[in-house]
Write a structure and sequence with these properties.
302 residues, mainly alpha, two-stranded antiparallel ribbon, globular
Length: 302
């Protein structure tokens, strides 16, 4: 791809955002600019030390090497989706005093846990677009499930050892319905269903469970985070070009931009959207259309 094309679109995007033509929802609280530390604080606050530490250790295996080529599907993308779950899902609310998130007052704590952990591992050990998404989903599940099944049991044992962790145990029990005991297998199976729900292309469905639709929305909404253009139209494009899904040419980039509009358009509307959820989708779609328009404009002038 001609670097002039990328520079032209990137400069135009930055200019239009500065002029307020596109509201990217980027007004993050100051603590969110280091969302890795916020994730650590939030997981420890919600899950306690043993489980949160282990989940972060597993997730860190997806951190790319410093000399690795520019790509999209890795640890930083997973963090972005987690951030969107915390910000947009409606299951969490910011606790500025503790620099972390709490459960929202009316939220199901169990559903909140499922969303949070599924977001962390939905693209875990991704094949970098080399293989179909069904393989990527299988990778994520096969590598993640053994850890969650063993470490949840560790959490229950450790919660009995200190006063601080014992308080958390009462929160954990709130995830369970009265008279119904969920075990570790139930928990991992419910997370698996959510991860499987992110497989793309999305199937044609009459209705989509709310948690799956919410996780998909948070995945689509990564185009609203700071640096979204370089992350998607740099990282994801070069990831797909490297394995031949699109050509590393101007027209290949234009095809990639068309595909991004289709991807964002495929986000399902067949469940009741809150105003904020609708705004997330509309802004993501607006960004994708803007990039596609700018690319066509540049190519037509050559």
């Amino acid at each position: 791809m001609n670097t002039s094309l990328y520079s032209y679109v990137r400069h135009s995007i930055i200019s239009q955002h500065k002029e307020g033509a596109v509201d990217s929802l980027n007004a993050l609280p100051p603590i969110m600019r280091e969302h890795n530390s916020v994730l650590q604080n939030t997981l420890y606050h919600l899950l306690g030390g043993p489980l949160s530490k282990r989940l972060l250790e597993i997730m860190a295996c997806d951190i790319p090497a410093k000399d690795s080529p520019l790509r999209y599907h890795h640890y930083h993308h997973e963090l972005d989706v987690v951030l969107n779950v915390l910000r947009f899902s409606g299951y969490f609310e910011l606790n500025t005093e503790r620099t972390c998130y709490d459960y929202a007052a009316e939220a199901s704590k169990y559903d909140a846990l499922l969303l949070l952990v599924a977001a962390m591992f939905h693209d875990y050990q991704h094949t970098q677009s080399k293989l179909p998404d069904i393989v990527n989903i299988a990778n994520a599940i096969s590598l993640f499930v053994p850890a969650i099944r063993s470490d949840v049991e560790v959490l229950y044992i450790d919660t009995l050892n200190t006063e601080e962790e014992s308080v958390l145990l009462s929160d954990v029990m709130c995830w369970y319905k009265p008279g119904y005991v969920k075990d570790v297998t139930d928990l991992s199976c419910d997370i698996i269903k959510l991860i499987e729900g992110t497989k793309y292309p999305y199937p044609v469905e009459e209705s989509v469970p709310k948690l799956i639709a919410t996780l998909r929305m948070c995945d689509v909404g990564t185009s609203l985070l700071p640096g979204w253009f370089d992350t998607i139209y740099g990282g994801l494009f070069y990831e797909q070009a490297a394995c031949g899904k699109v050509g590393d040419t101007d027209h290949g980039f234009a095809k990639f931009c068309d595909n991004q509009v289709k991807f964002v358009s495929s986000y399902p509307y067949n469940f009741e959207l809150s105003n904020e959820h609708r705004a997330v989708w509309e802004h993501a779609y607006q960004n994708a259309v803007l990039v596609k328009t700018l690319v066509k404009e540049w190519i037509s002038l050559q």
